[in-house]
Design a protein that fits this description.
CATH architecture of the largest domain: 3-Layer(aba) Sandwich
CATH superfamily of the largest domain: P-loop containing nucleotide triphosphate hydrolases
Number of domains: 2
Strand order of the largest sheet: 6-7-8-3-9-10
Shape: elongated
Radius of gyration: 23 Å
Oligomer: single chain
Strand content: 25-35%
Structural class: alpha/beta
Number of helices: 11
Order of helices and strands: EEEHEEHEHHHEHEHEEHEHEEHEH
CATH class of the largest domain: Alpha Beta
CATH topology of the largest domain: Rossmann fold
Length: 309
């Protein structure tokens, strides 16, 4: 049996003249967490819909659990778990009733549905909420229930489309602890997100923009690929500084963070001098300036700006 859970080769989807996904290629082994990063409209959800057998590709090939996305979509649907970015729950049913309903949809027999539900309730930490209406759960617990529904039939591949969107940081962390347990059991997880801190939790990440994959690699590997050095500048007025500093010699990219600018520069010491001189000339106040390590958001910003050039 192949260890490859998901494989895409130049997978493409067009809607008329618009190309939503443009020759996307990657592979994902069992037991790994693959982060698919990009802004809204970048092509994340269209890619996931093709891989789940919901949407036929225009061209290219894809295989999920050994099944062809073009010719075997129904087999794929039974082999995977899917968690959408909107809660796919019945609000007027209890936690247990939701699980029972989905278990029957997945074809679990009466004899093994009960034990499996108890196993899932424990795994997802939902035991104390078993008789609570799904509509009365908080956002974090609703998402835990959505994940529980998706893994009832023991799929070895799970797709999670923005699984923690709109959820508080503490709930987000607890959901990721659950995802790690699934990964440790050999389940392949394909996660779309626009949270860069979530991307740090993945084994491999791919940046997608305008339907194209810009880069694939490990979080640390991608950050190490940044050429030059990162300079953080705390200054005001911020947007004026961003526009002025972006034109300076040796500045390869610039990203705004709150009250600071993250600048990718060729030479750190030379950049400090020219930034300080320019700030004085332009009436920009600098309160702090120092070297920092690159973040994944810096990586994405630089890749995306190169794509626009």
């Amino acid at each position: 049996m192949s260890n490859i859970a998901i494989e895409a080769n130049k997978l493409t989807r067009r809607f008329g003249k618009f190309t939503a996904v443009d020759e996307v290629s990657f592979s994902l082994p069992y037991g790994a967490i693959f982060g698919f990063l990009g802004a809204n409209g970048a092509g994340k959800s269209t890619t996931i819909r093709m891989l789940c057998g919901i949407l036929a590709p225009t061209s290219g090939t894809g295989h999920v659990a050994g099944f062809d996305v073009s010719t075997q979509p129904e087999q794929i649907k039974t082999a995977i778990g899917y968690v959408s970015q909107r809660f796919s729950l019945y609000s007027d049913l209890t936690v247990v009733e939701n699980l029972s309903f989905y278990g029957q949809i997945y074809g679990l027999t009466r004899g093994n549905l009960g034990p499996r539900m108890e196993e899932i309730l424990k795994l997802a930490g939902l035991e104390k909420y078993r008789n609570r209406l799904a509509g009365e759960l908080s956002g974090g617990w609703k998402q835990r229930l959505a994940i529980a529904n998706a893994i009832l039939h023991k799929p070895k591949i799970i797709f999670l489309d923005e699984p923690t969107a709109g959820i508080d940081p503490i709930s987000r962390r607890s959901i990721w602890e659950l995802l790690y347990q699934l990964s440790d059991s050999g389940t392949a997880l394909f996660v779309t997100t626009h949270y860069m801190e979530e991307a740090e939790r993945c084994n491999t990440i791919a940046f997608i923009s305008r339907g194209k994959i810009l880069k694939i690699g490990t979080p640390s590997g991608l950050k190490n690929e940044i050429k030059g050095q990162m300079l953080e500048v705390e200054c005001s007025p911020l947007m004026k500084a961003s526009q002025v500093f972006a034109k300076l010699e040796g500045v390869q990219g610039i990203t705004v963070y709150g009250t600071t600018l993250n600048m990718n520069v060729k030479d750190l010491e030379a950049a400090k001098i020219i930034v300080a001189q320019t700030a004085k000339q332009q009436g920009i106040t600098i309160t702090a300036m120092h070297a920092i390590a690159p973040s994944l958001e810096d990586v994405f910003s630089l890749l995306d700006s190169k794509e626009e050039d």
